[in-house]
Here is the input.
Amino acid sequence: MTIEVRVPQLPESVADATLVSWHKKPGDAVVRDENLVDLETDKVVLEVPAPAGGILKEIRLNDGATVTSGQVLAVIEERASSPGAAPAAAVVPGASAPAIMAAPSGNATSGAKLSPAAKRVVEENKLDPKDVAGSGRDGRVSKSDVVNYLSIKDATPAAKALPAAPASTRPSPAGARGARPEQRVPMTRLRARIAERMVQAQATQALLTSFNEVDLHAVNELRGRYKDQFEKQYGVKLGFMSFFTKACVEALKKFPSVNASVEGNDIVYHEYFDVGVAVSTDRGLIVPVLRDADQSSFADIEKSIANFAARARAGTITMEELTGGTFTITNGGVFGSLLSTPIVNAPQSAILGMHKIQDRPVAIDGQVVVRPMMYIALTYDHRIIDGREAVQFLVTVKQCLEDPARMVLHV
Here is the structure.
C-alpha cells in the first residue's frame, strides 16, 4: 500500500514554503513520525513527519522547490509487519541482490539534539553529531556550533601540512595577491522576509528615534535581594526583560498612540498589550509575542521569554506565536551594543531598544557616584506619535525602572 506525504496546512498568512532539505533518499527505510524533510516559511522551519513506516518509494520535489499546502512531496511504500516482529528488509530498486536497510541507529542525526539548520550542515559534511559540542540549552547543537567545529577541523590539518618557509624566501611582489574566493548563496526565506519588512518600514513610515538613559541601581538591588528565592519558587531566573516589559506596559497605558498602528487613513488604538520580544537565532531575528503582557506576572514573563528563546533557536516555535504584537522590545545589549536606532516592526508604530549596561559616573544629589547605566532608544512612526509623546514615554519607562514600586502602584 502506498501513502502520500503532503505539505501540511500552512497558516493563512503564509502562501507557500521552500523545501530546504530531505533527510531520506528513495529506497531508505522510514519510521512513522520520523522527520523526512524541512520546509522553510518566512517565519519558521516546519518539519514534515512520515505518516507511516515503510520504504521511501519516490520523492516528487527536490531541494529548493516552492510548495503549497496539500502538495504531494513523496510516496511511502508501507510495510506491514506482525506484532513484535522485526521490520521487513527493504529492497533497494536496481540492486543485483536484495539489500537490507538497517533501522536508524542511535548515532543518526535525527536522534541528536540538533537544530534543523545544524542538522543540515552535519548531514552535508557527513559528521558524527557526537563530535560537536553544543552550546545551547541541554547541550543542543546550533548551526554556529557545527560551523565552528568545521573551521577548527579544517584548519588543523592545513596548518600541519604547511612546510616551514625557507630562510631565503623573499616577500611577494608589491600588489601580488593570493586566492580571493567568494561564495554566492540565495537568501533564506526568513532573511528575505526580514529584508522586505525592514525596507517596507523605512519606506512607508516616518521613523524617528529618541534616547534616554536609565539608572538600573534599584533594579539590580531588587534582583540581588530576591533572585535566589524567585528562582527557587518559579523555576526561572529573574532577568531584566520582565522589568522592561512591565515598565513599557505602564508607559503604553499612558501613551496609547505608541501602542497603535496605521491602517489606511485610520489609526487603530489597541486596547490590549501584546509585546513582541526580539530573539536572535541562527536563521535570523524573529519576534515571538507575549500576549496580554499587562496581565502577566514577572514570573510569567520570564518563563515565556526563556521558552520562546529555547524553541526559537531549536526551530520549534509556532507561527501563531510570531503573529501580531502591538509593540516590540529588542535588546542589542546582549551583544555589546552601547547605542543603536532600532527599526520598527511594521505594522507596529514603535520599538524600544535596550543596550549594554555600563558602570558610569553620574551626579546624584550633588555627589558623583558610579551607577549601572543603560541607554534606551525609542524608534517611532512620527505620523501618529509626536515627539512629546515619545520623550514622555521614555521618561515613564525610566521612572518605572529607577523606582520599581511605580509598577506595583501604577503611578
Summary: The helical segments are 116-124, 143-161, 189-204, 217-234, 241-254, 298-314, 387-402, 405-409.
